[in-house]
Specification:
Length: 229
C-alpha cells in the first residue's frame, strides 16, 4: 500500500485493555492507522462528528447500547464508514442484520493478531478496487476479497465437533491450564486422543503447553488457552 493514504480506523470497545490491544493490532498492519479509541457509542458519535474515519472496529456490546443500534444511528446521520464487528456474539441473525447495515467482516473474540490482520488486508484489497468492471468475473473477484479463506483441513483422525469440545474444556480451565487426562475426562475421550487435539491447538498457535514438576517422576504437561491480549 506504499504511496496510498492510510485507512483511518476508530476502535470502539468498552474494555480499555481490549481496546488498547486492538489498537496495537491495527497499527501493526501496513496501510492502516488508528484515528482514536473510544469506549461507548456516545463517545464514538462525538468522535465521528469532529473526525470522520474510513473504518470502525466495532464491539457490539457497549455500555450504552448495542453496536448495531449505534450503527443504525450513524447511517441515519449519513455516516458511511465501513465496519468490522469485533464481538463474542454468535447469533447469525445479528450477523445478517450487521451485513444489511454495512458490516463487511465479523471477527469473533477471542482472536489472535493474525486473524485481524488477514481481515484488514482483505478489506484493504476490496477498498482498493476502483474503476469500471469489465464483466461479472471482475465484480466477483472484487467481492471475493472480503471473504475469509476456507479453514485448513484438520489432520487425519481429528474431527471438528471433538475439537470444539476440547477447545471449550481448555478455555474453561483455570489459569494453570488443563492436562490431557482432565481434558479427556471432560469431553469423554481417552487421554491420548485428547492430547492429539491439544497438540493441534498448540501447533496452530491457539494454546501453549508447559511442564509442571511434581514430587517425583516425569513432569506433567499442562495446556493453556492463549488469549488475544
Amino acid at each position: 500500500m506504499s504511496g496510498r493514504v492510510p485507512i483511518r480506523v476508530l476502535v470502539v470497545e468498552d474494555d480499555p485493555v481490549a481496546a488498547d490491544a486492538h489498537a496495537l493490532y491495527v497499527e501493526r498492519v501496513r496501510g492502516f492507522e488508528v484515528a482514536g479509541t473510544v469506549h461507548s457509542g456516545s463517545a464514538a458519535r462525538r468522535h465521528l462528528e469532529r473526525d470522520p474515519v474510513d473504518l470502525l472496529l466495532l464491539d457490539l456490546y457497549l455500555p450504552d447500547g448495542h453496536g448495531l443500534g449505534l450503527l443504525r444511528s450513524l447511517r441515519a446521520a449519513g455516516r458511511t464508514a465501513d465496519v468490522i464487528a469485533v464481538t463474542s456474539a454468535r447469533d447469525l441473525a445479528v450477523v445478517r442484520e450487521g451485513v444489511s447495515l454495512g458490516v463487511v467482516q465479523h471477527v469473533l473474540k477471542p482472536f489472535a493478531f493474525a486473524t485481524l490482520r488477514e481481515r484488514l488486508v482483505r478489506y484493504a484489497e476490496f477498498r482498493a478496487a476502483a474503476g469500471e468492471a469489465s464483466g461479472q468475473e471482475e465484480v466477483d473477484r472484487a467481492l471475493s476479497a472480503l471473504r475469509a479463506p476456507s479453514p485448513p483441513a484438520l489432520p487425519k483422525g481429528l474431527s471438528g465437533p471433538t475439537l470444539e469440545s476440547v477447545t471449550r474444556a481448555l478455555r474453561g480451565a483455570d489459569r494453570s491450564g488443563i492436562t490431557a487426562q482432565a481434558a479427556g475426562e471432560a469431553v469423554g475421550i481417552s487421554r491420548i486422543t485428547a492430547r492429539r487435539y491439544l497438540e493441534h491447538l498448540v501447533d496452530t498457535g491457539r494454546a501453549e503447553r508447559r511442564p509442571q514438576y511434581g514430587q517425583v517422576g516425569r513432569p506433567e504437561l499442562y495446556y493453556r488457552w492463549l488469549s488475544p491480549a
